[in-house]
Specification:
By secondary structure, this protein is mainly alpha-helical. Helix content is about 65%, strand content about 5%. The protein has helices at about 10-30, 35-45, 50-55, 60-75, 90-110, 120-140, and strands at about 75-80, 90.
Length: about 140
Amino acid sequence: MENKVEHVCGPRMVKTYLDKVTTPEFEKIGITPPMGMVLKVLRCHEGASMKDVSEILMIDKAMVTRTVLKLLDMNLLENRASGHAYSLVLTEEGMKAAVRSKKILDNAWQELLTDVTPQEREVFDAVLTKVSERIRRSLQ
């Protein structure tokens, strides 16, 4: 049996959609979509390093570094480590932006999945979980 998968909607298409939908909302709070993603991660992973954030989001370390440095300059984050180490923690304003970021991202995903039934979403979530686990194992 041939194991052929036709990709109608790939990761790049999803990212393009999410950026298009979320950018205006993130601009209202003075940040970009990558900044919102980093803030959302740090809300759940207080004290994470830049390497940790890069691994969690599965994005380039240079992109994380640029984004974190901007967030530090904006006083949305603080680094509680010394020297070249990083232990990133949200400031009070950063926590507010992180909460808003989560809402923006949740709303975008909800809109994207509007036509998906609860049963289809359950299957979709299960498939994505398995695929994500496989990818993470292969990258270790």
